[in-house]
Amino acid sequence: MADGIPTWEEVARDYGRFLYTVAYRLAGNDDDAQDLVQEALLRVRRGLERYEPGSLEGWLARIVTNVFLDDMRRRKRRPTSALPDDPDRVVPPAPAADVASRELPAHLQEALAGLPEDFRVPVVLCDVADQSYEQIATTLGVPVGTVRSRIHRGRRLLRTTLTEGAA
Amino acid sequence: MSEHDLTEDLLSAYLDDELDAGARADVEARVAASSEWQAILDEVRDTRDGLRGLPALDGPPEFWARVMAGAALQGDALEGGAERVQVVDLDAERRRRRVPRWGLAVAGAAAAAAVVIGVVAVPQQDRVRPAVAALTDEHAARSSVGNDVISSLASIAVPTRLGR
């Protein structure tokens, strides 16, 4: 890494899992996640020269989100049947996360993939990619107030879905 | 922020630490005064914690190998002249990876068709037609030469068709 700018190989090696996780939570399946990551890494390669040292994860989250939104617009299709996490893809969680994940309804991923994308994208960016509302607003090109509203409504919709699913 | 401005979506912003001190205090006061807001806050917190507890995921090893191999080719292309090395086309890769799905379906259909043709169109060989007459004649000729007494006694009339 020179001048705080990572090489492409470093990005792929050190942030590949982050990209894949965000992509999978956005897309809801492995095939589309792979496509998103490949395209995102291609854009990373093209854009590294213009990268200004800062939040690399924020930059990557923005890229993979844009790839996802471009893909949505182009293909006009979305997964209709969300799959649960593929056991082979799951990385053992950190101890702190393990407590929460054991208490999760098994179909949380399914419920997430079923959210309308207007809600799913900001929720994923906030809760999976750990982006601030301002970063999400910049990525999506909407006001912070819109991000706040969509995140809250998205979480409430998720809650409703999970509650109905459990009933 | 006045009480009038308080909207429910501030609860998520409150959890995410996205409020300034004044708004935060307003939300806390509202939650303390409203069991409904308290319930919503609890639900949203549970959902948020659940999402944040989802495990990290990783792509399959072959995927990363393909990505890195493609990157290496592209690197060579950038350094050695793009005309010398063909850059991996991601769209083509995507199509290639997805071919097996319909490819398998086509192959399966072809195999099924072959079976059907084999059963229906090809005449079944349900009869054995040995060249008994020729074999008998040949054996008779040999046995006569060799003075095989037993074979010479055999009947000349041999069925030439052993069908059912």
Report what the structure shows.
The complex is a heterodimer of chains A (167) and B (164). Chain A contains 8 helices and no strands. Chain A is an all-alpha fold. Chain A has one domain (8-166): Winged helix-like DNA-binding domain superfamily/Winged helix DNA-binding domain (Arc Repressor Mutant, subunit A). In chain A, helix 1 (8-27) packs antiparallel against helix 2 and helix 1 packs across helix 3. The longest helix of chain A is centred in the last third of the chain and has 23 residues, at 144-166. Chain B is elongated, with a radius of gyration of 42 Å. The relative contact order of chain B is 0.05. Mean pLDDT of chain B is 70; it is low at 78-88 and 155-160. The chains are: A mainly alpha (167), B mainly alpha (164).
First-residue to last-residue Cα separation of chain A = 52 Å
Share of residues in strands of chain B: under 5%
Which fold name corresponds to the CATH topology of chain A? Arc Repressor Mutant, subunit A
Would you tell me the overall average pLDDT of chain B?
70
Written as H for each helix and E for each strand, in order along the chain, the element string of chain A is: HHHHHHHH
What are the segments of chain A in which pLDDT stays under 50 over at least 5 consecutive residues? 93-103
Q: Which series of helices and strands of chain B comes N to C?
A: HHHHHHH
Largest interface (CB within 8 Å) is between: A-B, 56 and 38 residues
- Largest β-sheet summary of chain A: none
| Total beta strand runs of chain B | 0
Q: Please, how many domains of chain B?
A: 3
Number of strands of chain A: 0
User: What oligomeric state is this?
Assistant: heterodimer
Helix content of chain A: 55-70%
List keywords for this structure.
heterodimer, A: 167 residues, mainly alpha, Arc Repressor Mutant, subunit A, 8 helices, 0% strand, globular, B: 164 residues, 3 domains, 7 helices, elongated
